[in-house]
């Protein structure tokens, strides 16, 4: 368990949780009673991490894992599930790119202000409010 946690980047708690809910297959035990995972589990865990990072809900990950477990004959359904998720990821990436453009524009505005101040030795005028009760 400790070795898998170290190599996968998941905590032992997360590995046990993934086993319990069915995202990871139950591992056989070695002679000392420790879980004995096949090396291919790391590829599966990396894929699960990618799905998680891209925002796939656990219930969809579980559905995909169940289809994968059933094997041959589920390829079309697995592909459709991944294609639907890909479209959500693409939409999210487009939204993030729009946000990045706003941030870049805002940052460029600050850089221009700093450059103007440096070039023209201009000071920023203070905004003064009239005291309350005066016109």
Describe this structure in words.
This protein has 135 residues and is mainly α. 66% of the residues lie in helices and 3% in strands. It has helices spanning 2-8, 12-21, 41-53, 58-70, 75-120, and strands at 28-29, 35-36. A hairpin with a 5-residue loop joins β1 and β2. The longest helix is centred in the C-terminal third of the chain and has 46 residues, at 75-120.
| Oligomeric state, counting identical vs distinct chains | single chain
Report the portion of residues in β strands: under 5%
Poorly predicted residue ranges:
none
**Helix share, percent:** 55-70%
Average pLDDT, rounded to a whole number, is 86
* Distance between the first and last residues' Cα: 74 Å
Within the largest sheet, what's the order of strands?
1-2
- Specify Rg, calculated over alpha carbons: 27 Å
User: SS-based structural class?
Assistant: mainly alpha
What would the principal axes of the Cα set say about the shape?
Answer: elongated
Number of strands: 2
Would you spell out the secondary-structure blueprint of this structure?
Blueprint: H1 2-8, H2 12-21, E1 28-29, E2 35-36, H3 41-53, H4 58-70, H5 75-120
Antiparallel strand pairs: 1-2
Produce a short descriptive summary.
The chain has five helices and two strands.
Keywords:
single chain; 135 residues; elongated; mainly alpha; 2 strands; two-stranded antiparallel ribbon
